[in-house]
């Protein structure tokens, strides 16, 4: 079986509650405990840093991919097992996708949402066949989930698109969904 490498999309905001940092750390630890690898955006602050630190603390392998322009802003994760510095966000996202075989979105802002939507569309269009999972233990994406259901009822979201994303509430449930594939 191929090693699972989970790409985690999450916040780099310094203005969030500690419970989100702890969630990200638990996700990183959970990934490592299963013997999987972590692919991240390569920053070492906020949730992005916590997921990588959690994975490494539990013996997991971490790959960070970060644009040069964000090395100082997001404080590059120089402790990563591998840190790839790229020219721009498009290259970053492409490499994150190509190095991963599962995608997990944690609570986050516009960057997290943009990455989630792009990977979701890619799955629907068969650019990849990997699981797309949302971990939302605090209902931060509840309105988004409702909006997606609403758009489906109105016919804007095609049959089969909504079912691609697996909405989960716990770390174990999210990682099980990453492993199951769909």
TrEMBL record:
One annotated GO molecular function: hydrolase activity, hydrolyzing N-glycosyl compounds
Q: What is the scientific name of the source organism?
A: freshwater metagenome
* Name of protein: Unannotated protein
SUPFAM superfamilies, per database record: MCP/YpsA-like (SSF102405)
Q: Which InterPro entries match?
A: LOG (IPR005269), LOG_fam (IPR031100)
Q: Name one GO biological process term.
A: cytokinin biosynthetic process
Quote a single Gene Ontology cellular component term: cytosol
């Amino acid at each position: 079986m191929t090693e699972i490498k989970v790409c985690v999309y999450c916040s780099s905001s310094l203005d969030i509650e500690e419970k989100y940092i702890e969630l990200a750390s638990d996700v990183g630890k959970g990934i490592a405990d299963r013997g999987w690898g972590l692919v991240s955006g390569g920053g070492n602050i906020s949730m992005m840093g916590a997921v990588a630190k959690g994975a490494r603390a539990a013996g997991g392998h971490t790959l960070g991919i970060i644009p040069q322009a964000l090395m100082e802003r997001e404080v590059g994760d120089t402790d990563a097992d591998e840190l790839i510095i790229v020219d721009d966000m498009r290259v970053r996202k492409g490499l994150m996708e190509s190095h991963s075989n599962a995608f997990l979105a944690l609570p986050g802002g516009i960057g997290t949402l943009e990455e989630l939507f792009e990977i979701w569309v890619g799955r629907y269009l068969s650019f990849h066949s990997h699981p797309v999972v949302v971990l939302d233990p605090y209902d931060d994406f509840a309105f988004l989930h409702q909006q997606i259901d609403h758009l489906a009822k109105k016919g804007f979201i095609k049959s089969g698109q909504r079912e691609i994303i697996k909405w989960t509430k716990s770390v174990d449930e999210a990682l099980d969904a990453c492993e199951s594939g769909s």
